[in-house]
Write the structure tokens for this entry.
Amino acid sequence: MFKRRNISISLTLTLVLLLTISLGAIAAEKLTIMATTDMHQYLMPYDYMANEPNEEVGFSKTYTKIKEIRSESENTLLVDNGDFIQGSLLGLHEYQIDPLEEGETQSIVKAYNMAGFDVSTIGNHELQDYPMDFFEKANAGAKFPIVSGNVVMADNESEYYVDPYVILDKEINGENLKIGVIGFVPPQTMRWGKDNLEGNVVIKDILPKAKELIPEVAKKSDLVVVLSHSGLTSAPKDSYDARENASYYIAQIDGIDAMIMGHHHGEFPGGYKDIENVDSEKGTIFGVPSVMAGSWGSALGVIDLEIEKQNGEWNVISSNVRIEKITKETQSSAEVEAIAKDRHQATIDYVETPIGETEREITSYLARVQDSSVTQIVNKAQMWWAEDVFSSGEYSDLPILSAAAPFQAGREDASYFTEVDSGDMTIGDVTDIYIYDNEIAVMQLNGAQVIQWLERSAENYNQIDPDASGEQELLNPEFSAYNYDVIEGIEYQVDVTKPKGERIVNATYNGDPLTEDMEFLIVTNGYRAGGGGNFKPCVEEDPVYAPSGVTNRGIIIDYIQAKGTVNPTPTYNWSIKPFEPAGTVTFRSHPEVMEYVNEYDIPGIEKLRTDENGMGVYDLDVTN
Ligand code: MN
Ligand code: MG
């Protein structure tokens, strides 16, 4: 029996108990579902990109929360929601730097085995980044099932790549409880991981598969738990966004008792306010108890279900959903640290490998409002690589452009920025600039398509009303910085007073306006080229060149090593089109932007204040 908090509840429940016993039922029980998501091989409270401890992440801390809950709750289930084997440099180290040996499994899988996970699912990053045998090593080493209901075999679509679902048997107060657990992954993974997946598997759309399989799981089990490696949006059902982030529509399928969400690296309950039928306080979506526990082990998702067996059938009476965030005070568990130890140290040694020097500090502080050193160095390196690759052959006559986004530019919080000091550079610095394990890809597009590409980027901005008085925030908080591609090799302006889709003006190549009859090569990454971020020309066209195994980060490392010393001073080839606002145009960024602004004499930026989230709020002079 679980503990009662106060006497009146206890009396009420005793009455309910007596009544239900007379009806042939047993007492209500509590089942606690604990969920991690998007762990990305963050075993330790450590940020390898910054090469310093981060006390608010790491499975060694999440595991402490898991142990606490287990000590309080008799009946628990521990699930993981995918994206666990890849992402941190420790994961890269196991794949590439000092690869896993035959029969060896990932450190995170060893830690999950130790922790006693009941089940996990396939996230997009289990499959898209590396050849499939990297995931298969995890699947072979895991002592828990890894399920997925929408990954099928390419040569026989009626066969699943891994079990679509599992039925777990739990004994609760002497009674058997069957918990059916099914998982889903965004179908776009197929495009993001085309090189690794095509011809091997097919990833079907989530909703049709969910509608087909969830009733089947429900028939075989007492409770249904969905591992939705998918975010939450109420965008139209058939939109790219909702097909990727399908949780809102999954929740509307009958028979689901609890849903674990992820992929967005967001938090629920708490986040996703103001969506119809989403209760961000209670943690329900169309009444289904649902949780999303951040990323990198930053939180543990907890769903308490009060369940009762009546006339041979288990029913959920009530639910309570919360996320327990990891803090500085949360202990890092020795058991996980022991498993991570050697690989953790080897990863730090790797991160500290020197590769060259930069004359200029590289930060993303201003990357969403003006040309910046962080996108500059990526574009310079990509163009350097492409000029060599395309110096002869079929495409050698085409001008080369390059696209890059500031991946860490303050969307999450004030600590989420690229910060590389001038002076010596290490491999860790390059991962701070280019955080993803993307592979290079090259598109061939005409001038009109290049503008379409930039129009999608320009959704980074809110539409500013030049006649409005007071403050207007320039940056769209819903827009992900990793989709803010800026393109090098052309010049253009962004008119933020115009509605989206009409913002790119004065776009020129060598002084000539960009038109449909100009052709370009544009260097990007496989995520973008595969349609990631929903950039129209990339959704519609395939890359013309995408060599397997060549990563954008590797190209940047090669570039710095080849040059010895780099100086990624922005070229300011793009800018916000000047206008005269009646009020003030503001943007949010790192709280210490002024130090950087003063060091490099950057005009037109003044700090107004620091906001409640610790972000600096700045006045941007848009008049010239
Ligand atoms: Mn993820
Ligand atoms: Mg994901």
